[in-house]
Design a protein that fits this description.
Elements: E1 4-7, H1 11-22, E2 27-30, H2 34-41, E3 48-51, H3 54-59, E4 66-69, H4 75-84, E5 93-96, H5 102-114, E6 118-125, H6 127-133, E7 136-141, H7 143-156, H8 175-203, H9 209-219, H10 227-237, H11 260-271, H12 276-290, H13 308-338, H14 344-350, H15 361-369, H16 382-405, H17 410-422, H18 429-440, E8 444-445, E9 452-453
Parallel strand pairs: 1-2, 1-4, 2-3, 4-5, 5-6
Antiparallel strand pairs: 6-7, 8-9
The structure holds NADPH dihydro-nicotinamide-adenine-dinucleotide phosphate (NDP) and ribulose-5-phosphate.
Length: about 450
């Protein structure tokens, strides 16, 4: 009997199945798409079994069955669950490893409970390479079921620099998919920031692709060490297959999305979380689709300070931390709103390797939340407060220069405004409150005494 099963053998499912097998566990793989099963069958051995029918797949698994569903999110997951329910036994475990919306996961978790089945909604990150060699895993749902699957999940997960597995139980219901959604929102934010740095370097500092690749590679050796910084360098070095040029210069500048970042923003609006950089990153993808392509190119021939690249690195580091701070702020607010006990150091550890946003900064974030420290905002931690103090002038200088040059920096500007606002005791919201009270008698609170107040702003005519 096989110890683990995977349904959906596309990019992620096939590699996750091979990963499980490579760690010494026996695994069955099934897909409704026969060619996907044929592709897995090339690796068939005593630990890896390709299956061509639902029944063959389910019957091949030892009980309690542990089945990873790694397919397109949405209706296909409900269809797959409906197909599985009559074939499974009480106590079996379904793990949804796709990018499912956490609302769907909440619903499925409660529905499957009624059938005596366990459900784990598990965020998976790492793309094709991570799936094979070690992804970050964010499982939520039944704790008891997680413990049952933990030996396999721990073996297949990425490992931090000191060998700890990038997986831990996140929380009940859809908490695992919530955390993956926040991961992806921060992914959008950091990718947008990198694209703005690239834009300033090419249009203001007039750097070639090779020079920019070298700068990103250099940054990757220091504080900014991160997977997304590393691949930015590799992207800039890549030659085109169809021309003699660099491929980056022929990629259409319209950003696509499957929407997990958008979901983070939707929930932030519900919770009232000021995730301004994530919001700008989501909107920048819309903007890339909406821009008319008939305008004039930005040509900057003004003076460029000798410390521009140094400032860009410092600004990028601070802006990257703002993205993480906003992600953790949203997690803190969601935990309160949904009554989840989230373990922030464990979440940071889950993201230290294997996933798309893995970066050296995450080790500092783990330290910031260690020993049960409660932070409303990551910048309350002394390390991050220090980076803010040191790097804020660079961020301000970069935003100022970009504004002068006419290069849009939605995420960098949002990061700067966030830092200027978040610890600011005198934001001008008193004017908004006064106007609301003026036109709508909406009332206001005072800063000098308790109670709710209304002013008679004008005489009734
Ligand atoms: N690609 C990535 O980098 C990452 C992807 N993910 C998530 O992992 C999941 C799988 O991703 P990926 O491997 O890229 O593949 P896709 O998201 O492209 O999904 C393809 C798989 O879903 C199956 N599928 C589609 N509809 C159904 C259905 N109605 N019933 C059963 N199976 C169905 C497909 O079978 P068929 O060929 O027959 O349509 C195929 O096996 C997704 O939720 C994705 O968001 C998570 C992290 C990273
Ligand atoms: O989950 C992922 C990485 O972590 C997937 O690659 C996801 O598709 C990325 O999001 P989008 O397609 O919206 O850019």
């Amino acid at each position: 009997m096989q110890q683990f099963g995977v349904i959906g053998l596309s990019v992620m499912g096939k590699n996750l199945a091979l990963n499980v097998r490579n760690h010494g566990f026996s695994v069955s793989g099934f897909s409704i798409d026969k060619p996907e099963v044929d592709a897995l069958a090339k690796y068939e051995d005593d630990k890896l079994k390709p299956c061509y029918t639902w029944e063959e797949f389910v019957d091949s698994l030892e009980k309690p069955r542990k089945i990873l569903v790694q397919i397109m999110a949405g209706d296909p997951v409900d269809q797959t669950i409906q197909k599985l329910i009559p074939l499974l036994d009480k106590g079996d475990i379904i793990i949804d490893g796709g990018n499912s919306n956490f609302h769907d996961t909440n619903r499925r978790y409660h529905e499957l409970k009624k059938h005596g089945l366990h459900f784990i909604g598990m965020g998976v990150s790492g793309g094709e390479e991570g799936a094979l060699n070690g992804p970050a895993l964010m499982p939520g749902g039944d704790k008891e079921a997680y413990e049952e699957a933990a030996p396999i999940l721990t073996a297949m997960a990425a490992k931090t620099e000191d060998g700890r597995a990038c997986v831990s139980y996140i929380g009940p219901e859809g908490a695992g998919h919530y955390v993956k959604m926040v991961h992806n929102g921060m992914e959008y934010a950091i990718m947008q920031e990198i694209s703005e740095v690239y834009d300033i370097m090419r249009k203001v500092a007039h750097k070639s692709n090779k020079e920019m690749a070298d700068i990103f590679a250099e940054w990757d050796k220091g504080d900014l060490n991160a997977y997304l910084i590393e691949i930015a360098s590799q992207v800039l070095r890549q030659k085109d297959d169809l021309t003699d040029d660099d491929v980056i210069d022929h990629i259409l500048n319209v950003a696509s999305y499957k929407g997990t970042g958008n979901w983070m923003l939707e929930d932030a609006i519900k919770l009232g979380t000021p995730i301004t950089v994530v919001a700008e990153a989501v909107l920048a993808r819309f903007m890339s689709k909406a821009t008319t392509r008939e305008g004039k190119e930005v040509v900057y021939d003004g003076e460029v300070a000798s410390d521009l690249i140094d400032n860009l690195g410092k600004a990028m580091y601070l802006a990257q931390i703002v993205a993480y701070a906003q992600g953790f702020q949203q997690l803190t607010m969601a935990a309160k709103a949904y009554d989840w006990e989230l373990n922030y150091p464990a979440i940071a550890q889950n993201w230290e390797a294997g996933c798309i946003i893995h970066a050296k900064t995450l080790y500092h974030i783990e330290d910031a939340y260690a020993d049960g420290k409660q932070l409303d905002n990551l910048f309350q931690d002394p390390y991050f407060a220090g980076v803010m103090e040191k790097n804020l002038p660079a961020l301000r200088a970069v935003v100022k220069l970009a504004a002068e040059a006419g290069v849009p920096t939605p995420s960098f500007s949002a990061a700067l405004n966030y830092l200027e606002s978040i610890f600011n005791p005198s934001l001008p919201a008193n004017m908004i409150q006064a106007q609301r009270d003026y036109f709508g008698a909406h009332t206001y609170y005072r800063n000098d005494r308790e109670g709710v107040y209304h002013t008679e702003w004008y005489e009734e005519k």
